[in-house]
Amino acid sequence: MTEQARKKEGIEVSLAVSEAVKQCDADVISAYPITPQTHIVEHLSELVASGELDAEFIPVESEHTAMSVCAGSSAAGARTFTATASQGLALMAEIVYCVSAMRLPIVMVVSNRSLNAPLSIWNDHGDVMMVRDSGWVQVFVENGQEAYDHIFWSFRVGEDPKVSHPVMLNMDGFIVTHTIEPIEFWTDDMVKKFLPPFKPIHTLHPDHPLTMGAYGPPEIYTECKMAQEHALMATVPTIEKAWDELYEVCGRRYSPVEKYKADDAKILFLTMGSIGETATLAIDEMRETGQEVGLVSLRLWRPFPFEHFKAAVKNAETLIVVDRAMVFGGVGGPVALEVKSALYSEKKRPKVVNFIAGLAGRDVQPDDFWQMVERAKSKVANGKEDEFEIYGVRG
Amino acid sequence: MTKPGDQWKWQELEPGFVVTGPGSAAEYKTGDWKSSHPEWNEAVCVKCGLCYSYCPDMAVKQKDTGYFAGDNNYCKGCGICSQECPTSAIKMVEGK
Asked: What's the CATH number where B44 sits?
């Protein structure tokens, strides 16, 4: 690693993300501005306008069109990027499902934001959970450095011919996107070493006519969905290999399920996104008082890393799942539903206590994790662990 | 497609379900959608070709004799040819 690579620069994370897209030499960016994603594509439009990035920036009238343009450009063999959030992701959802089935390796940042109504621009995970089952590779980052690193990683994974899937990079709106953080930039040599040129499996070209997005009648649709499911699950080895190679390039280690003081913990938190860093502060304090508490954070959300997850929680007595989205009419938050399913057939499994916290920018502070531990102990002692709780709700 | 849709296994499908050759729609016979088919009365047909022009599915073919006939592999029985024929030479007959 060079000295140049180690030097850190204070920069708004959105702008660092845009710089990473520039360093990846993206060919086409199509997006519609929506808070809190705007700074990312705004800066990219500046980079294209100034000539620093040789790409087509295609402004469109809606997110539905943004993803449609991305589908076309990716199908034509262009390295393609977009970003959105919340209502924008909702409007785009139809084409989000199309491009994964068509195996087009678009990279999209979702600066996670709550869904209306009531109108809210603030951070939670309601938007990504809406397209949870859309067949994209979906990862979460906790801070600006992780966000920056994972732009390179997303193109590297998505465009790998063994993967050829779109990648959704989730970062908490405002909390990550709008924070000025010290970022260690990659050198162009590092990017070149890590990210090969994009060579698509199939490309739209008049010399080689083919059909993408064809009609799939009942006698073949089932086989298509089986192939799609298999292809998504088969991405895991390439995903892990890319993280190994990223470690070799920049020295930061990432994995599908990450642990903090978790191996001997009797009580484990499970988080996704930036509140994981807050949780570590609380865990350090609780450890000083002798409480055996730790953290497991899910970096890879789709495909769900079942084996990694089971191994990470197998010794815990209680698993406190902190969800950041609602599942109306369900039996808990989306992450809790997932991990309960993952653990159901395990002979030895922790009791799962589910809190839904941090909806639409409601602060989750270290003290809240202390409170959740106390509430969880009480729930388990009274056999009430199956009742999920919207943490901190008044009334 | 090189074989009928109901004979493909999931492992054999192209990534993204791409159809790798052009013109594959011709292999998908859609003529069994129809409930009636057109029949030409060559005694009154004037070979004007309006049936050929109006057919939305290119399912009207011109024979060597200059008269026209429907291609029942693709004709969906819409009846437009019969409606447009200026000499009423085309009758829609029940059955495929």
From this structure: 3.30.70.20
pLDDT band at B22 (very low <50, low <70, confident <90, very high): confident
Fold classification of A257-390 is Rossmann fold (3.40.50)
User: Mean pLDDT throughout A291-299?
Assistant: 98
ipTM of the complex: 0.90
Q: In this complex, how many residue pairs, one in chain A and one in chain B, have their CB atoms less than 8 Å apart? A: 58
- Does position A264 have pLDDT exceeding 70, yes or no? yes
Domain annotation covers residue B19: no
Torsion of CA A48, A51, A54, A58, to 10 degrees: 30
- Give, in words, the CATH class of A3-250: alpha beta
* CA–CA gap between residue A372 and residue A275 (Å, rounded): 13
- Does the distance separating the beta carbons of A216 and B17 come in below 8 Å? yes
Q: Does A360 touch chain B (CB under 8 A)?
A: no
Could you report the per-residue pLDDT of A189-229, keeping only the tens digit for each?
999 999 999 999 999 999 999 999 998 999 999 999 999 99
In terms of C-beta distances under 8 Å and separation of at least 24 residues, what long-range contacts does A219-222 make, across chains too?
A219/B4, A219/B5, A219/B6, A220/B5, A220/B6, A220/B8, A220/B13
Q: How would residue B1 be classed by pLDDT, with cut points 50, 70 and 90?
A: low
pTM for the predicted model, two decimal places? 0.93
**Residue A81 token pair:** 């990027």
Closest residue, chain B, to A100 (C-alpha): B16
Cβ proximity of A249 and A273 under 8 Å:
no
Chain B residues touching residue A219 (CB < 8 angstroms): 4-6
